[in-house]
Amino acid sequence: MFGNSVSAMPDYVDKVLKEWEAIAYFAYDGFERQGRGVVAIDPDASGSVSFMYGPADFFQQQKLKEVTRLLELYDPATEFLVHFQDSAAATRTLRIRTPDGGRNPKGICFFRMLGLVVEQPEALPDYLPEWFFRALEDLERAKKKEAEPSSGAERGLTLASFTLSVKTAYNPFLRNSRYAFTSRVMPANRAISLSSALMMT
Question: What is residue 126's DSSP assignment?
Fold first, then answer.
């Protein structure tokens, strides 16, 4: 974890970061849609927490030099930035790195999209990135290779077992999250162009 302060985070930020797969997916999805940006975390009096994705140009226009510096440094595939109210008079931005042994934001995004291919193809977004299609082509090549006569040597993970592992890895993201989450695109206001509401259950 990196950032412009090492003091303790507010409880609501800590709780959101513990829902790693939800916020990591949201951050990488925002990156694919809008480029580099920051996930703003905003609580309200009811206990719900809203995510808003602010693209880099918003922070550049506001001349927030520390945020702009972090936007240039972070690696969207393995890290994301969070921005939140630290006190009545101050905000804070942190650079969050994938924990040891954890799945990185790009990997989480891949597995979520692959889960949709397997289980809900009609729910796939219309902006699928080029790298995702290349990955599907790699899987198709692996399937064809699997169909070739076996030499008897160990062939490793089959496509069928890979699909099963995808379902196993992906479904807990849907079933076990402590948050119910929805998203919508807000093209009229690019400063907050993607929003997701997370409600405590």
Answer: T
Task: Give me the number of domains the chain comprises.
Answer: 1
Mean pLDDT of all residues in the chain?
A: 75
Q: What is the pLDDT of residues 96-138, one digit of tens each?
A: 999 999 899 999 999 898 888 888 888 887 778 888 888 888 8
For the whole model, what pTM was predicted?
0.68
Longest distance between any two alpha carbons in the chain, whole Å: 68
CB of 49 closer than 8 Å to CB of 180: no
**Using H for helix, E for strand and C for coil, what is the string for 60-104?**
HHCCCHHHHHHHHHCCCCCEEEEEEEEECCEEEEEEEECCCCCCC
Owning domain of residue 18:
1-148+155-201
Residue 61 above 80 pLDDT?
A: yes
CA-based angle 125:22:61, to the nearest 5? 75
Q: Which two tokens stand for residue 3?
A: 């950032």
Which residues are bridge partners to 197 per DSSP? 50, 182
Q: Give the separation between CA 55 and CA 36, rounded to whole angstroms.
A: 6
